[in-house]
Specification:
- The structure is a single chain.
- By secondary structure, this protein is α/β, with parallel strands linked by helices.
- It folds into two domains: 163 residues, Multidrug-efflux Transporter Regulator, Chain: A, Domain 2 (Orthogonal Bundle); 126 residues, 3-Layer(aba) Sandwich (Rossmann fold).
- Helix content is 52%, strand content 12%.
- The strands form two sheets. It has a five-stranded parallel sheet with strand order 5-4-6-7-8, sandwiched between helices. A three-stranded antiparallel sheet has the order 1-3-2.
């Protein structure tokens, strides 16, 4: 399952590059840009190098180069031009395409160079919300359709985690929390291991000057009870990607409310895609659902101390 995917169907290429299969076939026939192998039943199969080449071509094509011009370039010129465009462009989509290319190539140098260029023009919150999150949403679909392997997803996810950890450590060293009583406890429920969202929320809350306690992934509700003696103004924050699943999420929230929220000032904030399965008609007033980070900020992080 974790083996690096080495051959791709034309549908895989369409999904990853965004170029329609029909167009890819035309480019093959008219410009000989790709040379797929054929199975015994005459089905096209593309190598990893073919996918890499198509992603390079796509980036140039989407940046205004005519396909006839791209086809006339020497093979060595194309990746050089791609890197130059990726590093000079302010477009979030160009950055996303460059990061997808770095994933396919397992190229951490290109990832870092692309990131450094875009962070020069924007703060980290902007980069995460407008580049990293759309990228991960795309990759989640690609992984589910088997267009990329788990190795690709793990490679890019861990590079993004590195950036969050660096930014978070910087805040922890350089800034003092505001003088207020509110404390945010960031955690993921039992069996939830997708921590990019909650890692970013930890950074985001720190960046607004509040104290956080980061507990990480897959925690049982009972293990959070000890936090109640730490502060009288606790706000639990979580990001639900796949768990608790839609069959048990309402029961999970009712249990959480009974054990941690009733009878005190504690609250629970939920972000992430699983919240769409919550039955809001019976939801405790101490549990808050947010579709966006901005909405969460407006409700809980009103007094920012950073510009």
């Amino acid at each position: 399952m974790s083996r690096v995917k080495s051959t791709f169907s034309i549908k895989d290429l369409e999904n990853i590059s965004g170029i329609k299969a029909h167009t890819i076939r035309i480019w093959e026939k008219r410009y000989r840009l790709l040379s797929p192998q054929r199975t015994d039943t005459n089905i096209r199969r593309y190598s990893l190098s073919s996918l890499q080449k198509l992603l390079n071509i796509t980036l140039l094509y989407n940046h205004g180069f005519k396909i006839s011009k791209i086809a006339s370039l020497d093979q060595e010129e194309i990746p050089i031009m791609v890197r130059e465009i990726a590093l000079k462009s302010n477009s979030e989509q160009v950055a996303i395409n460059a990061l997808k290319l770095s994933m396919v190539n397992f190229d951490s140098v290109l990832f870092d160079a692309t990131y450094e260029e875009i962070i020069l023009q924007n703060d980290f919150g902007f980069v995460f919300i407008n580049v990293f999150m759309p990228l991960m949403n795309e990759l989640g679909i690609l992984w589910q359709t088997n267009a990329i392997s788990p190795s690709h997803e793990h490679f890019i996810t861990n590079l993004i985690k590195q950036k969050i950890h660096i930014q978070t450590e910087f805040l922890q060293k350089e800034y003092m929390p505001q003088q207020n009583s509110k404390v945010f406890v960031l955690f993921l429920p039992e069996d939830e291991i997708h921590e990019l969202g909650v890692l970013f929320l930890n950074y985001y809350i720190l960046n607004h000057g509040y104290k956080t306690i980061f507990l990480g992934q897959s925690l049982q509700t009972e293990s959070l009870e000890t936090l109640l003696s730490f502060s009288s103004d606790l706000c639990f924050v979580t990001y639900l990607t796949v768990e608790p699943n839609k069959e048990i999420i309402d029961d999970y929230l009712a249990d959480f409310d009974n054990k941690l929220l009733k009878g005190n000032n504690a609250e629970l904030v939920i972000l992430g895609p699983q919240q769409i399965h919550v039955n809001t008609s019976n939801l405790s007033r101490n549990i808050h659902l947010f579709r966006t980070v901005d909405a969460f900020q407006q409700k809980f992080l009103e007094s920012s101390i950073f510009v």
